[in-house]
Amino acid sequence: MKNLRRLALVAGVAALSAIAFSPKAQAQTANVDFSGSIGPACIINSVTNGTLVPVGTQILAANSAFGTPGNINVTCTNGTTFTITGITDNGSSLTTGTYATGISLIAAQILDVGAGGTDPLGNPMDLTVAIAQVSPDGNNGIGFPVGVAGPLQAAAITNKNYPVNLNLTKNGVNLSSGFYKVRVGVALTPQ
Question: How far is Cα 80 from Cα 89, in angstroms, rounded to an integer?
Fold first, then answer.
């Protein structure tokens, strides 16, 4: 009987040990947290080139009244500034003179159409968001140098068109005949 009790005790301990120390998988849980931020960002969705047309004999223009302004379509997650970063010859071919001697002043302007309030008659006015000038022949003073950011456009922008105007002038002398090709560089700086 003593052996039977010992046997039962050993069997009971062995059974408990098998249950308590069995390699049975236990369910585990964990949380994985993520964090991040998106800084202000801008993208130029599309660009449309402009077309210069003569306005008299001393001016070529591309704006809402003459020729066809260029256009940039923009999306920004926050406010931004526009900057005209360059106004350069892009392969002009003139019959006489050169690009540098044949042009007195080139002015480029980027507009926010209808955002400039209203005139005294209640008509919407455009807001200049960037402006710059260059004088290829060096004969004109520059009131708006290239590379200066325009005023902050404070709100987010979604798929909005901004016309890019260009006026090219030769003071006191007719422009040379030929093909005038001008490139306007534009930068957006998200705020």
Answer: 27
